Here is the input.
Amino acid sequence: MEGKQKKIIKKLVLYFALAVLALIWVVPMFTLVATAMKSRQDFMSGISLFQFPESIAWSNFINALTKGRLFDYMRNDLIVTCLKVPLGIFVGSLASFALTRLNIRYSTGIFIFFLIGMMLPMQAALVPINVIFSKLKLLNTYFGLFYVYVGFGISYAILILRGFMKGIPKDIDEAAWVDGCNKWQLFWHIIFPISKPAVATLLITDFLATWNEYLLASVIINDNTKKTVPVGLMTFVGEHGTDYGYLCAGVLISVIPVLIVYLVFQRHFVEGMAGAVKS
Amino acid sequence: MNKKKKIEFSAYAFLIPAGIIYLSVIIAPVFYSLYISLFKWNGIGDMQFTGLGNYVKLFTDDKIFAIAIKNNLIWIALTIIVTMSVSLALAVLLNNQFRGRTFFRGFFYFPCVIAPIAVAIIWRWIYNPNVGFINQFFKTIGIDYAQSWISDPKVSLFAIFAASLWQAVGQPMILFLAGLQSVSVDVLEAATIDGAGSVKKFLYVTVPLMKETFIIVIATLIVSAMKVFDVVQGLTAGGPANSTQMLSTYMYSQTFQYNNVGTGTAVACVMVLMMMLVIVPYVSFTAKEN
Amino acid sequence: MMKSKKLVALVLATAMLAATALTGCGGSSEKDRSEDSANGNGNAVELSFWTLSTRQNAVEPIVEEFNSQNEDIEITVSYYDTDGMKDACKVAASSDTLPSMWFNWGGSLGGFYAENGLTYDLTDYAAENDWSNKFSAGALNLCTLSDQLAGYPTSYNVLDVYYRQDIFEQNGIAVPATFEEFESACVVLKEKGITPISTAGLNGWHVMRFVELLIEHYAGAELHDKLNTFEESWTNEAVVKAFEKYQEFCEKGYFPEGFITADPNDTRMATVSGTAAMDIQGQWYDGQILQDGADISQFSTFAFPSGGTDRLSAFAEMVQFNKNLSDEELAAGMKFLDFYYSDENVAQYAEYYNLPLPKTGAAMPEGQPNVEMMLETSNENGTFTITDQALPTEVADVLFSAQDALANGQMTPEEAAQSIQDAIEAYLNK
Here is the structure.
């Protein structure tokens, strides 16, 4: 009886805390949605920024997709992101596997060396990358963009995957060696599958980071038909004034793929670990 | 285990793909930056070698650079204290089993997927002293307090931080959520049987088990705090009167606006060095423990 | 052991294959295009053109039409947002990948490329092709940078005080003819609870539009020009007085609350909704008001009564040409720009141009009554180059941060003037 009461109180506290945080969180979100629904006239008419308009300006959403070419930008971004994320994770997990489970000299040193890429401000990389890429004719190619993304993403991938793989009990390796596994088999059939929660985390964060990257994309891609979402969204910003409804509608549409990826993969946090404990 | 201690070269093969891509993308910019930072250069014309001149000037005779360093350090402290606590708290809350969990997980993650440009626009409206949400809210509930949040140099940095917090919590929250899964229920139950209270259980059982998660979160938070750019550039562009200038915004101005490419690149190098000063000892210390 | 090595090798080989395949397919469209035009049409002139993305909806069909009309010329366009444009040009300049032609602003922004010998000097071309009759003198003048004609003038903009006629009338305010009258108009407006001047300080340049008028008022035309060319020190009494007055205006609340970090794109929100009465803007403001669905007849303009001839500030925009262009390429580029800025295209895509064109006898945009008036005023009163184009960016930024500091009371006018002079000296000794 007492336990049940305690449980109810716990639930109440939980919901209360969530409600308070959600209230704070919702104000900017609400503003974004309300603005996306306003026509330019509504926006300027002096009604509060934090209020829905009387009629929803669906034209903002339609214009964003058609006139604003958001659909094309999203397709391009999807191509780059879907190439980058799996390859980045694969390459990163190979390296993390070596750093945590194989005998490698200076593994901490190598790990730290791999972290530098995360620290380097991308602005500093623009000119050298532009010089090299223009020589190699890689400007305006998806490959060029995706290759640089993989390079810049390796640090983060290794940071996350190494952290997880370190925590996997060494007994598993022992058992695998005894069973006659080689390194590749150990990696591909055992360690990589166990790392599912870390891979899911990385997939979510990496997808987002790649999807929203502006700076490198703006320098490497200037062919209009190949632009990605963040660069494309900037074309919604006017020279002498921005149509905010249109911009916010574009922003709302552009986040859909990221949210889907997130909601699908966050489930795997739990499942993956259950598997690890069993084996 | 011990007989496998000898170095195996095939182990290094696993490092090769990452190594090749990483070296080809990162190394050129790193060396280029180190090299350029030793010169006086407008980005186009002749380069004039100045040795460490750019660095000396930054550290001895540049008020804005000093402000930027101070602001970045404040930002790092705020990030570690506030962002980490809030995201950890959210992760713990959302790790409970309850109705609508998936919704709330999506809800609190949502701000972090929004393009930075929109974040700046929305928060500028929220902070607007006349029509902004906060001041209007105070007015509605009868509190006579108006503040020009981001244009007051005393509170500006903190106001920007609050705006960025809204967006910055999502990422560490996910890392913590994933990390919490590595704490097996059995261990927690054992702790409960031993009579540990919830808070104690969390501090002495959960936190130590999430050590690797903390390393990851702290390292990424420090890097992102050091590199913070979009939200500052969007909300104040370093103003009012340089009071919210960050190393990244200052680097940007020097490189792309003032054509002092050498100075700007030196700022970038200082940023990397500062990050390494914090992260390298931290990571190598925690790596040695095992 | 062997097996694992083989596997790794296999993985690596596949990865590399995939990589090369991708390079092939990713780069193919571009390669194909250049090969096509090189092989298929031996002497096609290929030109790349960078411009602002806000003009995309006009430039795209125009380029398509031009390319199909001229089989020997192939124009490819890239679009950038305002800041992206500035950064992309800097990166391209540093890595020697500038396009054949690119949009640019006048003054210190475009001047940087002329100064460093990256732009084609059009002086001779202009003389041969009678540009002095083709373009307005003001525009040509503003496109002359570092003693070169640095670009093809595409717009000539003048700034004036836009005001709400209805608000002025309701409060019995006449258009001010002297600075004193301007001040008393502000007093009346403020008493009625209307913010006199809508401005926004993020990035500095919008507030600067008012500050430069104050400097013009206290310094007069001659001294003001000398300040901008660094012939006179900014610690000058006139500058200090201008800063004093600006600080006084800030204290009296003549600008919106918290304006120093407000976005300049938002100044219209106050004037359109009527919470503010004036805004210093260029002639493009008419088009903006129309797009907002506001009533254009409520808006009129007057020249700020700074004294003397009440000069307006002005700036130009242009298309710059790469210095490496051959005569043939230059001619092709000019042909394209003449087509782009032809009367037919301007008529068809009016909203994507900064009208009127800087040409002699250019048509005025319809339904925008203030445009013609402002240009007439600028011809009568004369102009000065807008401050952020007259000063190098690093000096202008010090002025901007001085504006913030004055508004927040962190600096005295003397200190502000001194800080700008220090920045000028640092710039000159660079």
Observations:
- Chain B has one domain: 63-287.
